[in-house]
Write a structure and sequence with these properties.
Layout lengths: L1 H24 L8 E6 L5 E2 L3 E8 L2 E2 L9 E8 L16 E3 L6 E4 L4 E10 L15 E5 L1
Parallel strand pairs: 2-9, 4-5
Antiparallel strand pairs: 1-3, 3-7, 5-6, 5-8, 8-9
Length: 142
């Protein structure tokens, strides 16, 4: 019977400690750090391919894997909301990584309305704490 209580205590401790441990592993964002779109502007009507330019304030850009204080690299979310801020940002057609330190890109978007958001990731593609993310913007591709 005692082993059941010990196991229960261990599981309870894991539920309490794990979120705090995950949070402590995230890189702290400098106060006032911001990421934003230079282009296109919110509500713009554009032609595809679309040139997207990223702006960053209070944080430097460094390639993925580079351990340097107060830096990160860009991720562009297309028609997608980031669901998990504790893990590495997925890499697919809706979560585009710029691990080389790029500050702009050209993306092919189908005709219609699309949402775009920028999220800065640390050397391991994990969002900073608190997250450095842009407002979600909407563009219409003609």
């Amino acid at each position: 019977m005692r082993s059941r209580y010990v196991l229960g205590g261990v599981l309870l401790a894991a539920f309490i400690v794990a979120p705090a441990l995950a949070e402590s592993l995230r890189v702290k964002a400098p106060e006032g750090a911001e990421v934003y779109f230079i282009a296109p502007s919110n509500g713009a009507t554009v032609s595809s391919p679309v040139t997207v330019k990223f702006g960053l304030k209070g944080l430097g850009v460094a390639p993925a894997g580079t351990e340097s204080e107060k830096t990160g690299h860009h991720h562009l979310l297309v028609d997608q909301k980031l669901e998990d801020y504790e893990s590495a940002i997925p890499k697919d057609e809706k979560h585009i990584h710029f691990g080389g330190g790029q500050t702009e890109t050209i993306v092919d978007l189908s005709p219609g309305t699309h949402t775009l958001q920028l999220v800065v990731g640390d050397l391991n593609h994990i969002p900073h704490m608190p997250p450095v993310e842009s407002e979600v913007i909407t563009v219409t591709v003609k």
